[in-house]
Amino acid sequence: MALEWYALAVQPRKEQYVESQLAAQGYEVSCPRYRKVIRHARQTKTVLSPLFPGYLFVQIDLTVQNWRKANWIPGSIGLVKFDNRPATLNSGFIDAYVSGNREDGLVKFKDPLKIGDRVRAVGGPLDSLTGEIVAMADQDRVKVLMEALNRKVHLTLPRSDVVVAA
């Protein structure tokens, strides 16, 4: 049998700890992450969050490695199993994730926003106002032409605050 990818269930917010413990034991581990904007009490911060909260992907050769060790790491719930055997994941799916990720596990999404798109603001004082993207300001912001107070206004907004209008 060759190396296969398996899903490992972990306790809430223990992904990073379990990932480091598995890596220290010689397992190849993947935890895809994305940038998440958190707003609380008028403060905004960006954090890396797991794309699949509560799960890690672990590459194991069942004939050589003792997969039960992964179940006994503090914070680990255990490998996802069917009929009391660890369930393999589609290797092409996981390999595409791993090859498409940066070293810190950050998933690279294709940007759906482009110049000329109709967008709608979400959250904040501009919630539900619509406009058109006129420029990409930088990596995290877009310039939008919006109708506000009966006139057209150029606004620069964080990408996380706009979605493509339906």
Features:
166 residues, mainly beta, Alpha-Beta Plaits, SH3 type barrels, 4-stranded antiparallel sheet, 13 strands, 43% strand, elongated
Sequence-ordered SSE layout with sheet pairings:
Blueprint: E1 4-10, H1 15-24, E2 28-30, E3 33-40, E4 43-50, E5 55-60, H2 68-71, E6 76-79, E7 81-82, E8 85-86, H3 91-100, E9 118-121, E10 130-138, E11 141-148, E12 151-158, E13 162-164
Antiparallel strand pairs: 1-5, 1-6, 2-5, 3-4, 7-8, 9-10, 9-13, 10-11, 11-12
Task: Explain this structure.
The chain has 2 domains: 4-100, Alpha-Beta Plaits (2-Layer Sandwich), CATH 3.30.70.940; 118-164, Roll (SH3 type barrels), CATH 2.30.30. It contains 3 helices and 13 strands. The protein has helices spanning 15-24, 68-71, 91-100; strands at 4-10, 28-30, 33-40, 43-50, 55-60, 76-79, 81-82, 85-86, 118-121, 130-138, 141-148, 151-158, 162-164. The strands form 4 sheets. It has a 5-stranded antiparallel beta sheet with strand order 12-11-10-9-13, with no helix packed on it. Strands 2-5-1-6 form a 4-stranded antiparallel beta sheet. The termini are far apart. The mean pLDDT is 86.
Brief write-up:
This protein has 166 residues and is mainly β. It has helices at 15-24, 68-71, 91-100, and strands at 4-10, 28-30, 33-40, 43-50, 55-60, 76-79, 81-82, 85-86, 118-121, 130-138, 141-148, 151-158, 162-164. Strands 12-11-10-9-13 form a five-stranded antiparallel sheet, with no helix packed on it.
